[in-house]
Amino acid sequence: MQLTDTVTLANGVAMPRFGLGVWQAEPAAATQAVKTAIEANYPMIDTAKAYGNEAAVGTGIQAGLKATGKKRSDLFVTTKLANPDQGYQSTLDNFEASLKRLQLDYLDLYLIHWPVSGKWAETWRAFENLYQAGKVRAIGVCNFSQATMTSLIRQSSIKPMVDQVEYHPWLQQPELKAYLKTAGIQQEAWSPLGGTGGNLRDEPVLQAIAQKHQRSVAQILLRWDLQTDVITIPKSVHPAYIRENAQIFDFALDATDLAQIKALDQHKRTSYWLSSFDWYTGTEK
Description:
The protein is about 40% helix and about 15% strand. It is α/β, with parallel strands linked by helices. The protein has a single domain (about 5-270), classed as Alpha-Beta Barrel (TIM Barrel), CATH 3.20.20. GO terms for molecular function: oxidoreductase activity, acting on the CH-OH group of donors, NAD or NADP as acceptor.
């Protein structure tokens, strides 16, 4: 396993298993983080309109490509449609606006950020249009449960290729994971290091495994993602951590480690803002 390894999505597109996330990154910090990540050979960048940093990410992409001599095709770029922008024509218009902010002429992956009630079906129809027109190489969703995913598939001609959901040892969602695997939909983790409602780095079991392998807890968490066949996009704006997060390809967790981590599941979300957010409809409670 190495940094440039990929998984093959249902439509045959090769998607990197590892990349940089930029949620909560201020624009200037996002630009530098993206440039640093590209210089550190990160093959994938993940952002979203709702993050407010698409333009900064676009600047960072251009700076990183210039600094390394890499081509646009060497990088896999994902962004997401914001909740207020859902709807057929609005989706098409906002896709073009995201491309402009990112300074790109196509996307590798476009995701519906949340399953907004009454909107996601027509939004997905626009996603299918974009995909069929060749403007995006793959399409998918974020935060879709088994129920919403099943409903979407029934109403669609093209099945989502990716479902990006919160995933870490405290929230493993085994039923959803099994469902996605059976459906041929690739799972991707957001907040793989834990969110703002709890610190996985303080978990004694993870600290012990980290000491055993002489690694950081963050590296253990990211390695666990890869070994459980989940794509991971850790966020950092610190150059040292960006480089450290990618140094997870020269060791492996053993069966005992994996069993101990599996036992940590608490069905616990660690992002504080989800307490006031309806995960199933994508609306404020």
